[in-house]
Amino acid sequence: MLEPGDRVLVAVSGGKDSLALWDLLLDLGYDADGLYLGLGIEDYSASSGGYARAFAERRGAHLRVVDLPADLGFDIPTGARAAKRAPCSACGLSKRHLFNAAALEGGYAAVATGHNLDDEVAVLYGNVLRWDLAYLGRQQPVLPGGDGFARKVKPLVRLGERETAAYCVLRGIDYVVEECPMAAGNRHLRYKEAMNTIEERSPGTKAAFYFGFLDRVAPLVEATAAEEREDLHPCPSCGSPTVAEVCAFCRLAERARA
Ligand code: AMP
Ligand code: FES
Ligand code: ZN
């Protein structure tokens, strides 16, 4: 995923996974900066940002902060309403865009996120239920950079969320425990619950589902994602790759500000 000594931008939410990831990348000798996005979600954003800042200070690491309300003129709840999207969809779109932009602008070798096995299994489950081949083609722990994309890596995909929580406890890392209030009851959480029910009765199912996908199915659907990349051109407003006239993030931001 990374070369020794790489400059990495770690997307940190203040939660257990991304703080564990930042901690271990620093210990492994990577030149790892953090990136925190203030999404403007009630008290949750203030509290999660506090954990990210406290960790950076304790480790003497550099944390970049992009505050959506202050720096971009809108927050996620407003963006979601304006774009008529579910909050988590507006949020995911904004995160992907801003991670990519920050990594390219800062000249990082890769952007790393804290997605764990439970996250990947829930996303895979959703993609399979809809047979979304384009999403399946892009559901990889490593996505190469180039043509307006930063390299993306998810180093924790082999670990369950209880393992990253245990790591934080053992390392004395304080993290935000509360869930995002906007995510309550969303599809992703329902898929996680469903997979937990199956895992309880048949331990090992999650790992078999996800790693079987990577070994046997991902190579078959890769081409779909590659074909999609061929239709991309730079957004005239921000330069990000898009298939639309103006990219979805610029459209959302413009509507939210209006
Ligand atoms: P989520 O989409 O909330 O499941 O988070 C997946 C990963 O995205 C986390 O492990 C972090 O690496 C990153 N992330 C989530 N929220 C933020 C945020 N507000 N700022 C920076 N990175 C984030
Ligand atoms: Fe994105 Fe809650 S963190 S909607
Ligand atoms: Zn754009």
TrEMBL record:
Keyword annotations for this protein, in alphabetical order, are: Transferase
**Record has Transferase as a keyword:** yes
InterPro entries the record matches: Rossmann-like_a/b/a_fold, tRNA_thiolation_TtcA_Ctu1
Q: Which SUPFAM superfamilies match?
A: Adenine nucleotide alpha hydrolases-like
Record carries keyword Transit peptide:
no
Q: Which PANTHER family match?
A: ATPASES OF THE PP SUPERFAMILY-RELATED (PTHR11807), TRNA-5-METHYLURIDINE(54) 2-SULFURTRANSFERASE (PTHR11807:SF27)
The protein depicted here goes by the name tRNA(Ile)-lysidine synthetase
